[in-house]
Amino acid sequence: MSPDVANVALRYDAVFYDLDGTLVDSRPGIEASLRAALATHAPGVEPPVLDTLLGRPLAGLLREALPGLEPAALPAVAAAFAQHYDAQGWRLSRPYPGVIAALQQLAAAGVRQIVVTNKRRHPALAILAAFGVAPCLEALYTLDSVQPPYRDKAAMARAACAACAVRGARLLVVGDSVDDRQMADACDASFAAATYGYGHAVTAAGDRRTAPHVATLPADLVLDSPAGIVALVMAADGCGSDA
Fold first, then answer.
1. pLDDT at position 219, please?
2. 8 Å CB contact between 15 and 172
3. Out of 3.30.70.330, 3.40.50.1000, 3.20.20.10, 3.40.50.12780, which CATH number does the structure's domain 5-25+94-242 have?
C-alpha cells in the first residue's frame, strides 16, 4: 500500500526521469515509424530488432540500427521517420502500468519532477500531455530544448540541476540505461534502475542484474515497477531511509 501523503518524510526532494523505457513504452510507435520511413526511402530494407537501441537520440539510433544503409540515405530516412512519428507514431506510446498514479502521488507530496530525455521535444510534449501527467512535471529537458542542442543527457541534467537548484543526495534519477546512470553521476545524485523498461536488453541473457547500469546497485534501487519509485521516494511515518 502506498504511504499516506500526509504522513511521510521525503527521502528525495526531486526526481529526474528518463522517458522511453522508464515512463512510457514507446517501442510500437518507433517501430511503426521506422517501417514507414524505410518503405519510402529504402524499400526492401528490413527494420532491425531495436531492443538495445530504444531511447537513443534519433540520428544515433538510425546509424546503429541500419549499418548497411548508405550514409547519404540516412537524412531522408530520419526526416521521414520524424514526420511519421510526429503525426502518428507517438500516439502508440503507452505509460507503464502505475506510472500515472506514481507521478500524481509524488506531485501531491511536493516532490519536484523533471523529465530528461533523448526524444525530440515535440513528440515528448505530446506524449506527456496525452497521458495527463504534464501538470505533475516542473520541466522537460530534451536535446533540442536549446540551440545548439545539448550534447547528451549528462549535459541536460547539469542544466536542470542549475536551473532548479537541486543536486546531490536529495536528488534521484530514474532510468533504464547506462546514460541515465551517467546522468545521475553528473549530478552527484542517486540512481534507480527501471528494470521493467528496455535496459535489461543490453545483456544477451536478459539478466537485468548484470546489465551495466544495474550492476553494483543495492536492491532497493532496482525497480520492478513504477510503484517502486513512490516507495523509494516516500518514507512512511518519517522513518527516513531505513524503511
1. 86
2. yes
3. 3.40.50.1000
The CATH number of 27-92, from 1.10.10, 1.10.150, 3.30.980, 3.40.50, is 1.10.150
3-state SS, residue 149: coil
Task: Answer whether residue 3 shows pLDDT above 50.
Answer: no
Query: Which set of grid coordinates corresponds to residue 21?
Result: 523505457
Q: Residues 6 or more apart from 26 whose CB is under 8 A from it? A: 19, 20, 54, 90, 92, 93, 119, 127
Q: Say what the pLDDT of residue 166 is.
A: 87
State the pTM of this model.
0.86
Residue 45 per-residue DSSP state: P
Q: CA gyration radius for the chain?
A: 18
